[in-house]
From TrEMBL:
It is found in: Membrane. This is Cation diffusion facilitator family transporter. Its main location: membrane. InterPro entries: Cation_efflux, Cation_efflux_CTD, Cation_efflux_CTD_sf, Cation_efflux_TM, Cation_efflux_TMD_sf, CDF_Transporter. It comes from the Bacteria. Pfam families: Cation_efflux, ZT_dimer. Belongs to the cation diffusion facilitator (CDF) transporter (TC 2.A.4) family. It is a multi-pass membrane protein. Residues 212-284 form the Cation efflux protein cytoplasmic domain. Residues 13-206 form the Cation efflux protein transmembrane domain. It comes from Thiomonas arsenitoxydans (strain DSM 22701 / CIP 110005 / 3As). Keywords: Membrane, Transmembrane, Transmembrane helix, Transport. The chain crosses the membrane at residues 45-62, 83-101, 113-135, 156-175.
Length: 320
């Protein structure tokens, strides 16, 4: 975990350094040509720097070990980063839209296009290389912060490609409206990316379950233990950044000794943690006939009836 955090910081520092170089090149391309397209492209990269700096700060929090105030760890902090990053991309897209609209109503000629395009292309190649390198790292480290940052860089690459092509076509065709129109198309694409990042963040904050493949794998582990005696139900999972949590009921015959039941529970926990290293597993032991009170209450609220078999160990206190 700690090691993962250190590697995550290496990726984010590299992206920060790359962003500074890329912004300088893109601003140079704007200075050389006077193209508003290049200016809006540079503006998007400036958002990258702000986002990467924020991600660095957040990863530091996310990797902190669980403490008394946060006994489940701090990994959910990652979702703030992807949420804020999504919002920043959205703002950048809106700024590009505004610039493009201005350009559309007040067309202006641009100069030294081949030189400006070459400078911007060099910046784009740097961005693409760093983005692909980070995406590989994000998959390996299962880090949503690095993935968000890499996807952001990739949208930056698409913006740049669109802008470079549009700006190069302007002197060739004499169509001054082309630059802003392509800018608008690219901005809409970026807006969609922003939406998916914010959605991802909301999913995490709302305790979304593990994905379908992981859920199937978890059920396959439980299948190895299922028998006439053993039943699993109320299996719940959630993902918090790089951490996974699973809780479930393990129902078994009421006549078993506590030792036998505990051995069984231990074996299930061990198998689950072997399949999903680092997962936090909570297994509640229950008899075959009895359901937990909270599940009975939940069903009572949902349907107004209890279908679970209710057994009463000893006489309940009499109400007078
Ligand atoms: Zn149950």
């Amino acid at each position: 975990m700690h090691n993962n955090g250190m590697q995550a910081r290496t990726y984010l520092r590299a992206s920060l350094l790359a962003a500074i170089i890329v912004i300088s090149l893109k601003l140079l391309a704007w200075k050389v040509t006077g193209s508003v397209g290049f200016l809006s492209d540079a503006m998007e990269s400036i958002v990258n720097v702000a986002a990467a700096a924020f991600a660095l700060f957040i990863v530091r929090i996310a990797e902190a070990p669980p403490d008394a105030d946060h006994p489940y760890g701090h990994t959910k902090a990652e979702y703030f980063s992807s949420g804020v990053e999504g919002l920043l991309i959205g703002v950048a897209a809106a700024l590009i839209l505004i610039e493009a609209a201005k350009r559309l109503t007040h067309p202006q000629p641009i100069s030294d296009v081949p030189l400006g395009a070459a400078i911007s292309a060099a910046a784009t190649v740097i961005n693409l290389g760093v983005a692909l390198w980070m995406l590989r790292g994000a998959r390996r480290l299962r880090s949503i912060v690095i993935e968000a940052d890499a996807r952001h860089l990739l949208t930056d690459v698409w913006t740049s490609v669109g802008v470079i092509v549009a700006v190069m076509l302007v002197p060739l065709t004499g169509w001054l409206w082309l630059d802003p129109v392509i800018g608008i198309v690219v901005a809409l694409h970026i807006l969609r990316e922003a939406f998916s990042l914010v959605k991802r963040s909301v999913d995490g904050l709302m305790d979304k379950s593990m994905d379908d493949a992981d859920l199937a794998g978890l059920q396959a582990v439980l299948d190895r233990f299922r028998s006439n005696d053993l039943r699993f139900d109320h299996v719940r999972t959630r993902v918090a950044g790089t951490r996974r949590f699973a809780s479930m009921h393990l129902h078994m015959p009421g006549g078993w000794s506590l030792q036998r039941a505990a051995d069984c529970r231990y074996a299930v926990e061990k198998a689950l943690i072997e399949a999903y290293p680092g997962m936090t597993v909570t297994i509640e032991m229950l008899t075959s006939a009895q359901e937990s009170l909270q599940e009975e209450n939940a069903q009572m609220q949902a349907t107004g009836t209890i279908s679970y078999q209710v057994c009463t160990p000893g006489a309940p206190p009499q109400q007078h």
